[in-house]
Amino acid sequence: MSEPPRAAPPAVTVTADALRRFTRDVFVRAGMPEGDAAIVADVLVWADLRGIDTHGVSRIPMYLRLIDDGDLNLRPSIKIRTETAAAVLVDADRAAGPLAMTTATSAAVRLARDAGVGLGLVRATTHTAALGYYTLTAAHEGMAGLALAASGPFMAYHGTRAAGVSTNPVSIAVPGGARGPVVLDMATGVVARGKLVQARKTNQTIPAGWALDRDGNPTTDPQAALIPLPLGGPKGSGLSLLIELITSLLVSNPIIAGALEGAADGHRHRQNGLVLAIDLRRFGDPDLFRSEVDRVIAALKALPRAPGVVEVLMPGERGARALAARSRDGVPLPRAIVDELGGVAARFGLALFPSAS
Amino acid sequence: MSEPPRAAPPAVTVTADALRRFTRDVFVRAGMPEGDAAIVADVLVWADLRGIDTHGVSRIPMYLRLIDDGDLNLRPSIKIRTETAAAVLVDADRAAGPLAMTTATSAAVRLARDAGVGLGLVRATTHTAALGYYTLTAAHEGMAGLALAASGPFMAYHGTRAAGVSTNPVSIAVPGGARGPVVLDMATGVVARGKLVQARKTNQTIPAGWALDRDGNPTTDPQAALIPLPLGGPKGSGLSLLIELITSLLVSNPIIAGALEGAADGHRHRQNGLVLAIDLRRFGDPDLFRSEVDRVIAALKALPRAPGVVEVLMPGERGARALAARSRDGVPLPRAIVDELGGVAARFGLALFPSAS
Asked: CATH number of the domain that B216 lies in?
């Protein structure tokens, strides 16, 4: 007598508040000051609310590994190394990415108020999380925001069959009018690394052109897929390399070269970041800017659609809708993630968040 | 009796000096001040030297059309509208792109010396030409340079079957060490529009995935190909849209919306630009930066190559080699371009440049 086929395990739905509380408590138990833990929790759960599941609470186990390995400093001494009329260099002392990046964003926004433009460079942080959080922070302050992050090599460099660069992401956001802000947040790979990780966890076949296996051969097997391919070949890997150069090398903390050379600590996790803010008010009428954003969106949405397309979407529009829905209904989490977080809760003697439904 | 098959017409080779002189003389005869004409000539011929044939002297007829149509102002009154400690807004009064962009680049570099970062915004210019010229100017000053340009809609917006955005380019450059600077200059389309124009002129079939025809259907026919497709779908068209927002809307000169709405002057040629410079010396040791650039290049070049790849190339490396070869041997021009420029020479009573070989 065979068992009936197992249905896909149901997702658990959790309120954002419960997720934030849990995440904060985990990092406090791990040894992080409560204020810092609250910032990390806010940035991670924001990604879950926006539907960027690859950058949300599913990263908690990874952050804990970074702490266990000594890569993420729980009690960093974050220092401003350089401050000019328009720029700061934040030496993050291996602080959690959300702490370092929010520090740099605040500085960039503050400096841009006077100087029109503000640059916040981040040296030696860890996983920066979803960059859209920081550029939208600038947008909410009436500014255009641009953010970059640089990390270790795992994406193919064009022309090679090996991991040579990261999928270093770019985010740009601006305030909008009635339709809200526009925010682009894209990796320089064909897909973000998180998508490959998720395909591995859910064992779903990946499209051709996404990744190479460990030997550098193209594959669609989610278990074999290891090396994501760059967006548009030389464009994606070139852009990723330039992000390493204007971020990591600019702050004297190169990542790629040491890792490729096989230096003893070359593969230790570390990241660098860059946040740029431009104050709209210094260059024009911000109300006109906002209405012009709505105007161009309306014009694009009125274009004839490609076959099979139901709606023309703007960058960040899907995320804004997810935010509205998940703020109201809660964040759905796959059973595999909940199980993993159950292990985290047990480790720290915490109760797992209650399901909202 | 049939004629023998016609061989491909031979290219004519011309020295850079002769090309520059001819280009300058054309614009002087058209009514441009000699100093301005020399700058335009330098920027266009630089593109030819770098092998960016789509942005070189082949654009002279287009520039002349812009002059004839009143879109390019031969005697502009270029004004600095906003100047802060780190930013300028250059109101270009429809000056030729190379004039406006070199003005903005100089200002950005000057401001970055003190402020660490300098931003030059350009309002209301014409064709900006190859952005790598401006970012390499910043790199030669010991700075990281970033440039954007925004123009009218002719690329498909993802999810539509119509021209909704431009192939708005991005360039980033940094100084290097013994290997020279690294410069990325990429359009947000799968290919630059110039490549489609060139395929049409030479009647070569284009790859699938490059373009749509006038009805929004995919095509490989160079005569039918009209609408280039965005790089990586939503990524390319999203990035292009954000460039319009942080460039054109920031300087109160929106381009896309009016064109899509079919406004009376919505399709008149105009562009806006942005140049950012970051002074390496303010954030670290520039000599270390340069040696680290060489180091990461060496590490990437040592990676195992993909099948069929002879050499792993860095962004701008092909262009640097073309510059060396063409500075020495001259610039090869296809017969079709030479014939077109012959017409230009006749119009202005100029002698056509002599062939170098």
From this structure: 3.30.60.50
- B261-268 average pLDDT score: 85
Judged by a CB distance cut-off of 8 A, whether residue A116 touches chain B is yes
The more confidently predicted of residues A191 and A89 is A89
Q: Which residues of B28-43 are buried (b: 16+ CB within 10 A; e: fewer)?
A: bebebeeebbbbbbbb
Residues A196 and A315 in one domain: no
pTM: predicted TM-score of the whole model, two decimal places: 0.96
Question: Residue A236 is inside which H or E element, if any?
Answer: helix A234-243
What domain range includes position A196? 190-229
Spatial CB neighbours of B195, under 8 Å, sequence gap ≥ 6: B54
Q: Which helix (H) or strand (E) holds B272?
A: strand B271-279
Contact residues for A266 (Cβ-Cβ < 8 A; gap 6+):
A258, A259, A260
pLDDT band for position A97 (cuts 50, 70, 90) = very high
Same structural domain for residues B136 and B264? yes
Residues A45 and A108 in one domain: yes
Residues B288 and B206 both lie in one domain: no
Which residue of chain A has the CA closest to B289? Answer: A249
ipTM: 0.95
Question: What is d(CA B328, CA B349) in angstroms, rounded to the nearest whole number?
Answer: 29
Nearest to B39 by CA among B125, B162, B163: B125
Least CB-CB distance to A250: which of B236, B284, B299?
B284
Distance (Å) from the C-alpha of residue A70 to the closest C-alpha of chain B? 26
Alpha-carbon distance of B148 to B163, in angstroms, equals 20
Positive or negative: CA dihedral A206, A209, A210, A213 = positive
